[in-house]
Amino acid sequence: MTENKVAVITGASSGIGEATAKLLAAHGIKVILGARREEKLKEITEEIKSSGGEALYRVTDVTNGQEVEDLIQLAVDIFGKVDILVNSAGIMPHSPLKDKRIQDWDNMIDINIKGTLYGIGAVLPYMNEQKSGHIINISSVAGHYAHAGGAVYSATKWAVRAISESLREEVAQDESNIRVTIISPGAINTELLSSVTDPVLKKNYEQFYDNFGIPVNRVAAAIQQVVEVPEDTTWNEIIIRPTKQI
Ligand code: NDP
């Protein structure tokens, strides 16, 4: 069912984006990887190709709307279409609001919210023309619950869910069969904690992830199943948590 499909994945240089790119490619989907670290993108793309998959990358900073447009354009130029967009780029520099780490707040808003919006904006014209497509936005359990130290991160992930739900209603009224899925992970072992700048919170989160974190392929597997669902049906949101996460 997914044969000949084309997927663009942001945040594909590590974690959920990387695992998703590899798994979708292993299922015959052509993948276009976007992120900022070129060495990582190159390495992952080569690995996919040497396993028989089709993959391309483009260095992309999702805070730059033009770079996101160029990433989508690459998919259309080389593979003729874009069936799936996975907006996975994100950071989580938790800190108490009283610390006023304004640069971290701005970065989270720019990457987690605006980056997702730029992806949606870039891909919608093509999906509308194709009358089909699947937009998968990575939110979080933190998009459902807010805890001390995670105010801005939670706000951005709540925003991702709000944007996704609004988009779902918008496209449901069109002639197209565009689908929208929110993936809300709990503690998944990736590089995400490297973006936590507050030393105390970082230590607490590291302990929490050491105790509870689950492998990233759990999320990739869910995304791979989501894209296999017949076009008249959508899994709108999946929460994936370690069984023991409170
Ligand atoms: P990683 O840190 O492993 O991956 C984050 C990815 O985002 C990297 O590929 C990074 O690439 C990319 N990225 C960061 N900033 C930018 C930018 N400005 N432009 C383009 N790409 C960027 O973490 P995860 O894989 O865990 O995170 C993926 C998503 O999952 C995020 O949205 C995160 O919030 C969400 N999530 C993760 C959870 C977890 O426990 N791991 C739980 C809930 C949600 P590069 O630095 O090369 O640009």
Automatic annotation (TrEMBL):
PROSITE patterns: ADH_SHORT. GO terms for molecular function: oxidoreductase activity, acting on the CH-OH group of donors, NAD or NADP as acceptor. It comes from the Bacteria. InterPro entries: NAD(P)-bd_dom_sf (IPR036291), Sc_DH/Rdtase_CS (IPR020904), SDR_fam (IPR002347). Keywords: Oxidoreductase. It holds the Pfam family adh_short. The keyword Protein biosynthesis does not apply. Belongs to the short-chain dehydrogenases/reductases (SDR) family. This is NADP-dependent 3-hydroxy acid dehydrogenase YdfG.
